[in-house]
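ARCHIVE CARD
Drawer: 12
Card no.: 0347
Subject: one protein chain, sequence and derived structure
Cross-reference: see card 0346
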Amino acid sequence: MSGEKLPAEKLPDHDHIAAIVPEYSHAGDSTTIITTDGTILSAPVRVSTVLRRLARAQATDLPALKRLSSRATGRSILAPLPLSAGLVLVPLKVRKPKIKGDPCTGYVNSHAAIAVEKTAAAPYRTVVKLSGGGNVATLWHTATVNRRLSLARLLAPGSSQPLVLREAGGPYQIELTALVRRLVEIFGAMIKQYSLTSRQ
């Protein structure tokens, strides 16, 4: 996957980013950014550098954000990164390293993920379809990808408190407190809206 060259210091707006994935290029390890309109951009830096710059643009302490996300989801590694209202990054294993230590994790913006499908294109198991027509292939099973996307959407800014979310060792579980609270909020807003319109 290659595309338009992007200066290392210039990145798309947060809500225009659909995915960020590592890529081997002739210059070494680089990063491919897929936008929500399907444009493919190539940055001559590692994914970790892109993440730091995105966090800096929001005046966000990335290590602190990772710690908070880990605590909220119960995941010690590869927790979602809610960088802004329009950019909640879901980590996925997208390649096998050529050299030990090479990054294998890419990120999909949960807001841009429109479908998750199985694929027969080995070694990949799943493809995440993105708004704008892009897609990201991952080595993980479809069920795992769907769990990660669900966690990220509940962790997104504006959702109810996600601090009770946990992924159990076995069947996927979410404590119902947060979900019930969120449903109550939604139904309450619907009832209020109905009451207002019925009076008109």
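Annotation on reverse: The longest strand covers residues 17-25. Strands lie at 4-5, 17-25, 28-35, 40-43, 81-84, 87-93, 105-109, 113-118, 126-130, 135-138.
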